[in-house]
Amino acid sequence: TERDLLEEVVSTVREMSHALIRKDTFDATAVSNQLDVQIERLDQMEYRYGPDHMQLGKALELLRTARNAIGGYLTLNAEKSDNGAA
């Protein structure tokens, strides 16, 4: 259901914040992949229910923000690794 998916979203974002706090790149990558899947599922729900559905819109905005944040972290981490190896 929609509620279950929204609870799953909150749980994933919480996992993401813990991975970032621990600076765990492996966990961050796994969570990033989970976020991609959840964004896709919410996009499909939004398409089915319409763009005016407030909870879905807010959840999508939260997920996309979280995805951008974790993507930025992983990119920065990769650049640091590349610079350290050079």
- The gyration radius over C-alpha positions equals 15 Å
Number of strands: 0
Instruction: Give the proportion of residues in helices.
Output: over 70%
Listing every helix as H and every strand as E from the N terminus to the C terminus, the arrangement reads HHH
Walkthrough of the structure:
- By secondary structure, this protein is an all-alpha fold.
- It has one domain.
- It has three helices and no strands.
- The radius of gyration is 15 Å and the shape is elongated.
Question: Strands, helices and their partners?
Answer:
Layout: H1 2-22, H2 25-49, H3 54-85
Concise synopsis of the structure shown:
The protein is 91% helix and 0% strand. It is an all-alpha fold and 86 residues long.
Characteristics:
mainly alpha; 86 residues; single chain
